[in-house]
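Changelog-adjacent note: as of this version, every example in the card shows the full chain rather than a window. The one below runs 688 residues end to end.
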Amino acid sequence: MTPPASPPPSSPTRRSQAAPEPGALGRAATPGQPTLAATFRRLRALSPELTRGLLGTLALALVATTGKVVIPVVVQQTLDRGLTDDGADVGLVAVAVGAAAVIIVLTTVATYRMNLRLYRLSEGTLATLRVHAFRHIHDLSMLSQSAQRRGSLTSRVTSDVDQMSQFLQFGGVMLLVSSGQMLLATVLMVVYSWPLTLLVYAFFVPLFVVTRLVQRRLAGRYAIVRERVGELLGAVSEAVVGAPVVRAYGVQERTGRRIDRTIGRYRSAQIEAQRVVAGVFSLSELVAALATASVVTAGVALGVAGSLSTGRLIAFLFLMTLFVMPIQSMTEVLNDAANALAGLRRVLDVLDLPTDVRDPALGPAVGRLPVPRTGGTPPPGGRRGPATVPAGPATAQAGRDLPAGPLGVRFDGVGFAYPDGPPVLRDVDLEIVPRTRVAVVGETGSGKTTLAKLLTRLMDPTTGTVRIGGVPLPEVRFASLRGRVLLVPQDGFLFDLTIADNVRYGRPGADDKAVRAAFEALGLADWLAGLPAGLSTRVGEGGARLSAGERQLVALARARLADPDLLVLDEATSAVDPETEVRLAAALAELTRDRTSVTIAHRLSTAEAAQDVVVVDAGRIVQRGHHRTLVAVPGVYRRMHESWAAGVGAVAVGPVAASEAGVVAPAAPVGSVDVHPAPPPRTSRMEP
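Full-length structure tokens:
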């Protein structure tokens, strides 16, 4: 199941990067919500399996209902024709019973086949929907993902889809069989006694109208229920992941109260929804009882008048039971349907979120179906435009590949601001020539990490352009970008697999020999040999069985195996102990040799070993040059370095860490601003 392309950004030239409002995905049903028919059309467009072979399934459902109405017919024929004043007609009774037995066997086989087809249909439909939702969530930018609760996004692919599965497999069977059963029962009731049939409908038509009105109300209640499920999953997930912090600060009681409140809100939402369901069920029971009593009274009166035989009256009562049973069970079907519809709309809400960071390989959004959007933040002007559903294959030839060879980087007038927030980066002009080791330093909140995310296109700039190898990043295919440019974040995430499997994420298909070679190249062979099972050591969920420093070692080995042309390190050694950091310095120098590397440095020892240092302050590049040059002149870098040196007990402001690590920084004449050809005038802003 290959999901189609994700929707494109709303405009090729984006003035602001909008993220969905937190919690917008979980809002309850509103009057502007798409109708049931529109929602069904959207689901069918996303998952064509929904209607594949549907006619055959309906035919089997029709056959399956025949066995239910054959019993009343046999009873009527036996009473009216098989039992006479002269005695029982054994032959007629035997033929009727034998025919009924054959029909029941056939309907049993048809019921089995119908259920099997429905299960396959529902699971195929929902599997495709899960893939769409999962793929789309991963296509969203980091900004869009961080704006949503983790539990809410997780529930879209899990519990919300599970609710639809429950309805399609149980409610779908009930709906098909009950519809056919009511249709055939109505036909036979009219044949036996049309006056009694009109009497039955006089009771149940108003119930149909009331049920329809209640369905709309129930949809809103279950939209709230599905929202509360997302909140519950998020709260429980945070409590489990943050268990060490909860215990360390002794806030178990406070955390428990928060979980209790979340569970209480979920319970209240469920009770409100079930109150509506209980009301409809009680009403249907009352209507069924009144209808049965009325039919018995009217039927006896017709029998006394000679208009209705005993067999026909008893058969009619059987048929009426077959007619009433689906209506009574319809309350449960309605309950499941409302829950499933609320879950489906929540899944569609997340699919409506625009992928503001779009892979150009997917090509332009052509041949797409407009559908109403119910979630997310409205565009400027307050009116929501139509979202899109893929209606055709993507254009694989679109987009460009990065040029072969070493890669350079250029920021041209780049600015970035989070939604409803102040600018994080302003007018950044920066050029990095190929095969250069660059360290980006600055105080907390200066914009260093944002710079790394823009460079690896985890987000797009609000203004300006980022180029790698001379190609604007929005034009670079993700396959080329991810294969040539790699980000190693501060906390390298590990999957609940072995060390070898985690490292192989850097190059799928690599054998154990290549994985081991990556550790050896970083000087970590002895550390690897000290593990209980070596490469086969399982790291636990999120790498919980390893220390923070050990997790970072695995992340660095993964980067070494990937062998990128542009390496972006968000202080990859920040979680490593001093002894390991010294050992890694030489390995990192080898790793970054003959390739462009940009390190977001939170420790100035990293900047001392770099060939070029870029100083960011309040979202602007205020200084640039070699460490020895920058530390010799007053400015932001010198102030930061003096504070850091005092903190670590350094006695000099020279490149101490680099010499201790055995990494010799290239010589640069004192007073030079840059160890590389000078960038454009806006690139470097040296303070006096």
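Structural remarks: The longest helix spans residues 252-304.
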